Amino acid sequence: MIHAMVPVMTLILASIFLKERTTMFQKISVLLSVTGLVYIFSMKGIALESMNQTGLVFALLSALASALYGLLAKKRLKDHSYMDLTYIILLVGFIAFHMVFL
Question: CA-to-CA distance for 32 and 26, rounded, in angstroms?
Answer without folding.
Answer: 10
